[in-house]
Amino acid sequence: MPQFKLKDVSSLSLQPGDKREVEVEGVEGGKVLLLNAGGKIQATGPKCTHYGAPLVNGVLTKGGRLTCPWHGACFNGQTGDIENAPALDALPVFKVVEKDGAVYIEGEEATIKAARRKPNFKCGTSGGAQADRIVVVGGGSGAIGAIEGLREKGFSGPITMISNEGYLPIDRTKLSKALITDHTKIQWRDEEWFKSGSVEVNKERFVYSKLVLATGASPRNLPVQGFKVLENIFLLRTVHDAKKIVDAIGDKGKKIVVVGSSFIGMEVANATAAENEVTVVGQESVPLERVLGKEVGAGLQKLLEEKGVKFHMSAGVDKAEPSGSSPSRVGSVHLKDGTKLEADLVVLGVGVAPSTGYLRENKGNYTRIEHWNVAQNQGRVVAHHIVNPSLKSDFFTPIFWSALTGQLRYCGNSMHGWDELVLQGNPGEGKFVAYYCKGETVVAMASMGVDPAMAKSAELMKMDAMPSKKELKGGLDILTVPLPA
Predict the structure, then answer these.
(1) How far apart, in Å, are the Cα atoms of 173 and each of 55, 180, 216, 399?
(2) Is the pLDDT of residue 318 over 80?
(3) Domains (range + CATH), the chain
(4) Which pTM does this prediction carry?
C-alpha cells in the first residue's frame, strides 16, 4: 500500500477526542483529518460527505463519534461509517505510521482525493425471488435512508422503490432554498447507482417479503376563495413545482406574495428577494414564532426586511382575486383587515399533511417531526431492523437547518412545548444561540453564525449531558462545555 507523508506532523500525540486537519505531501490538494477516536489514532477524509463541511470544525467525542458542524451528519471515527443522516457516503479511513521522525498515511491517491467511501454492495440481481423482495413506497428522504440502510447492513435481495415524482430521490431541502429546477443537480444518486445495488424504480405490482411505507407529505392549500381555481398560485414540494415558480417569475421584477411565515415561506422569500418585490403574510406576530419564539423570529424578520422583504403579520387571508388583464390568473391577495396586496404570483407555504390516507383507520398518538434528517434516520432504523430484528435502535437528536440570510441550525424536539427561551447574542445581527427550556431542561436549541454550537448541543443531548437553564442563563458558552468520556 502506498505511503504519503503528512506535512508538519512529527509524532502522534493526540489525546482521545483531539483532531487536526493536515496536508498530504505528494497529493495535489490532498488533506486528511488526523484524529484520536476512542484511543485509536488514524486519519479520515477531512470533509463531511453531505455538503463538504470541514470536519475539523465539527465535534469529536472521546469515544470517537464525529459530528459535522453544519447539518449534524455523524460518522464513526474508527471505521468511517455513517452514524447519522444526512450524509450518504462514509469516510475513508487511513492507517498512520510513524517513522524517521515523520508521520505517514497508507492509502491510494485516488481515495485521498475523493475523501469519501462509496457503498460496496453485495447483492443479488433484480430478478431474484419475489418472496425475498423489499418494496419501498416513496421516493424521498425516508426511502433513500431505508434503501441505503438495507444495503449497508447486508440485505442482498432485490429492492423496488415506487415513487410518483418522476425522478430519482433528490435533496428536497434545496427546492425552497434555491428553487432548483433541474432534478439532476440535486439527485442523491444517479440511475447507475440504483442499478448497481439491484434497486428497481417503477410502478408495477410486486409480491414482497417486507413493505416500507415512506410516503412523506403533501403541501396544504388554502380553503378560501380563489386559491384553488386561479393560475399562478403555487404549492412547493417537487422539482416540477419549483420549475413552475421560476417560469412564472421569468425576467424578475415580479410582485410575489408568500403566504406562510414558517420555514418554507421564509426560505422562498429569501431565495426570491434579490430582484423581486416580495411580501410575506403570516398568522403569527413574527415569523417562526411557534417554533423559535418571538425574539428569534423578530430578528430573522429584521434580516429579511433588510433584503427588501415586506411583512404582514398577525394577518389572515380572505381571498385571492383575478388579474384585470387575465381573469384566469391571480392579480391580488386580500387580507381580512381589508389590505389588498398586488400579486403577479403567489407561493403557499402553509404546512403539509402526511400522505397516509391509506392508514386512516389506524389508531395511534404519535409526534410528527418533519425534518429531512429525521426521515432519513428513520429509514435507516427500519432497514436495520429488517436485517436484524433484535437490533436495539440508537437514539438520535432531531436536527434541522434553514437558509434565512444566514445558516440557521436547530436541534432537539420542542413539539411538546417549552416555557422559557434563553437567548445569547442578537438574532437581528445573524449571530446568536437560543435555548428552548422546559423547566430546567433544554429541549431544543437554535443558532446562527456560531458553529459548531448546534453540533455540540446535539451530542450533549444524546449523552444526556446538556447544561441546565440556570447555567446557560448565567452566560455559559456551549462551545466550552466538555463532552463526557
Answers:
(1) 21, 10, 13, 13
(2) yes
(3) 3-114 (2.102.10.10), 130-216 (3.50.50.60), 233-353 (3.50.50.60), 395-474 (3.30.390.30)
(4) 0.88
